[in-house]
Amino acid sequence: MLKFSKGVELPMFENDDVINLSRPIHTNMPVFPAILKTYLGLYRDHKESVRPDGVSHQSNILIMGDHAGTHIDAPLHFNPNGTGIDQMPVGIMVGSAVMQDFSYKKPGDSVTAEEVKKNMDRMGANPKDMRYILFRTGAAEYYQTDEYWSHYLEIRVDAVEWMLDQNILVFGVDASTVDHARDRATHMLMRKRPCYHIENLTNLDKLPQDRIFTFVCAPLLLKDSSASPIRALALVPQA
Fold it and tell me: Is the pTM of this model over 0.90?
């Protein structure tokens, strides 16, 4: 336990490895071509704010799109009648997860429900106990290159519907998208069934394929927003 001076205690995950799964936010970060460019800059620095008594501070200005960097899409993104990210249930922001590695597939290939189910059976994991499934596509290796935008896998609609049938409402990928631009079939599923997905994850190669871990996905409380940047973390039990 981590103890503070007034006796407040917070749990320390002493038996877990904490792995960062989010991309850093900065001015030159890659963003999808249709998304606003990001700007993170200095607003006031210590030199400008210093007082005669020596007190000073720094503050910064941040301008970014809600779909920039590692972010989670809300139903509103492709459903005009869907809910914004501020309506995402708190109860699904932390929970059990597994990672499935499909990085051996070619860009543009599909991930099917049968493949997802087969991997769950191989692990001996009960999908009813899961909150998330994360998919390694291999795109992360091409981040900050032009190839990144075309290196993705289609998480097919039947795979997402199977997850939703198991009450897995969130899935994530280490790529810029989850489907083909020509039809956006997986995104369009949001018009039929409420669901969420995460894009631009990183470090999925550091996650186990044979163990369940805890995933943390806490979006900003952006009212009526179609998405939100997140700080994604995996708490992986030590082997």
Answer: yes
